[in-house]
Model the fold of this input.
Amino acid sequence: MARKLLVVMLTACAILGQAQQSSTQESSPAQTQASQPASQQSEARTKISVNSDLVVLPVTVRDRHGNLVPDLQREEFRIFDDNVEQAIDVFTAEAFPLSLVVLIDDDLKSADAAQMAPTLRAITAGISSSDEALICRFDLSFYPGDGFTGDLNKLWADLKDAQEHSGPSTAGPVPFVTSPSTHPLGVGEPPQAAPTNLGSRPTKALDDAVHSAAELLHDRGASRRKIILLISDGVNGPQFNRHTYPDTLEALLHDNISVYSLAVGHSLKRKFSRLVNYSNDSGGDIYYAVQSAAMEKLYSRISEEARHEYTLAYVPRGNNRSANYHRVEVRTTREGVTIKTRQGYYTGPLVDLPKR
Done:
């Protein structure tokens, strides 16, 4: 769920008061990584356990030049839940290990696939020894890969396999009807339907693919950042999806999953895109690349951004707790910076659609 309690414990012998005090120290993620060997970082890292009372928000802050801002302190942040200001109960700037699903569009136009495929193996450059990743592909169907791993050789092999499969799908579309959404429109719903692939009929189930990736991340540890790296042109055929956009967004927010999108091909020309909406509404980001060299650089940038976010947590107070969805806003008193975080969270149980 999107509401998780951060319990700060530095060592097994540390008392709770000392642990909570230590969790509020404002330290640069970059300094933390550089000053401690990997084994010590693992021991000192904030541990997370689950409690349904608190809301957790990963927050990214950038300056005017797009650089990460690592030195903000607790008192420089303000949180509003349904427009009601909240007290920040937990704050940390520690770097967290990643659980990453790399979700690769298997039905790009030939030119876009040829440009993207050679860059895939560069994804491993952004994987640290404490991270784990899973390589998945999609077109009309979802191909879930072979399990999470931190073994770079295994990831290289999986990426090589994805590289060989990338390209236009040879399978004809097999449409099915999506059940009407049970959620009210307007919560993360794109302002208009995503345009089709250069006027052709879309033959991809992007919403289902993102939902399936979210399901794979559901059981990963609460002390890990859960990320989907979505590499796609953003084309989506609603008639091919079981899950609607609101359904999928709810699954992402329930499990604190952020989508980072790398837009390729003609998605650069699209004003309203599924990629933009998934990235913005889940608290991730979107990047645009028109050259292979740019794609390779962006892979490492995305993983570093996801790893070095601030974590803010709070107990919601003073608003209507009976509502299913709550909108969140994070502000800062620091001038000249921009903040990215998820747009809100759900409090009700996540209802799965029956299996086909």
Q: What stands out?
A: The first strand starts at residue 55 and ends at 63. The chain is about 25% helix and 20% strand. Residues 1-45, 169-201 have pLDDT under 50 and may be disordered. Residues 261 and 286 are 5 Å apart (CA to CA).
